[in-house]
């Protein structure tokens, strides 16, 4: 297994988590598969120096541990679920947190 390590700024992490926190509750019900939905967005503190997020639990096997057996069928069952289609389905972007 290859291990790749990257370093990103705390500000970029904060921005990405804010977007996830804002978008996923609106997108999740419209997606063809269950996804974790953010419940709480936390800011850095003395106890934990990085931004953080709490999400709902999605039961099942972690994707990185599951065999890829039906990828073509699953992709064919959800055609058009790309960025433009998601935007069209959800309307305007939600307000930023």
Could you explain how this protein is built, in words?
The chain is of the alpha+beta class and about 100 residues long. The chain has one domain. The protein is about 35% helix and about 10% strand. It has 3 helices and 2 strands. It has a two-stranded antiparallel ribbon. It is globular, with a radius of gyration of 16 Å. The N and C termini lie far apart (about 35 Å). The mean pLDDT is about 80. This is Aminoglycoside phosphotransferase domain-containing protein. It holds the Pfam family APH.
Mean pLDDT: 79
Total individual domains: 1
- CA radius of gyration: 16 Å
Structural class: alpha+beta
Q: Label the overall shape.
A: globular
Instruction: Give the topology string: H per helix, E per strand.
Output: HEEHH
- Describe the main β-sheet briefly: 2 strands, antiparallel
Short description, anyone?
By secondary structure, the chain is α+β, with helices and mostly antiparallel strands. It is built from 3 helices and 2 strands; from the N terminus they run H-E-E-H-H. The protein has one domain.
Produce the secondary structure layout.
Elements: H1 10-27, E1 38-42, E2 52-55, H2 71-77, H3 83-90
List the defining traits of the structure above:
3 helices, 97 residues, globular, 2 strands, alpha+beta, single chain, two-stranded antiparallel sheet
């Amino acid at each position: 297994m290859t291990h790749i390590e990257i370093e990103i700024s705390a500000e970029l992490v904060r921005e990405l988590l804010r977007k996830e926190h804002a978008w996923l509750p609106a997108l999740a019900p419209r997606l063809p598969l269950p996804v974790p939905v953010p419940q709480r967005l936390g800011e850095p503190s003395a106890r934990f120096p990085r931004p953080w997020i709490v999400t709902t639990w999605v039961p099942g096997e972690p994707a990185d541990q599951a065999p890829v057996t039906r990828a073509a069928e699953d992709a064919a069952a959800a055609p058009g679920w790309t960025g433009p289609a998601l935007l069209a389905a959800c309307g305007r972007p939600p307000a930023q947190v």
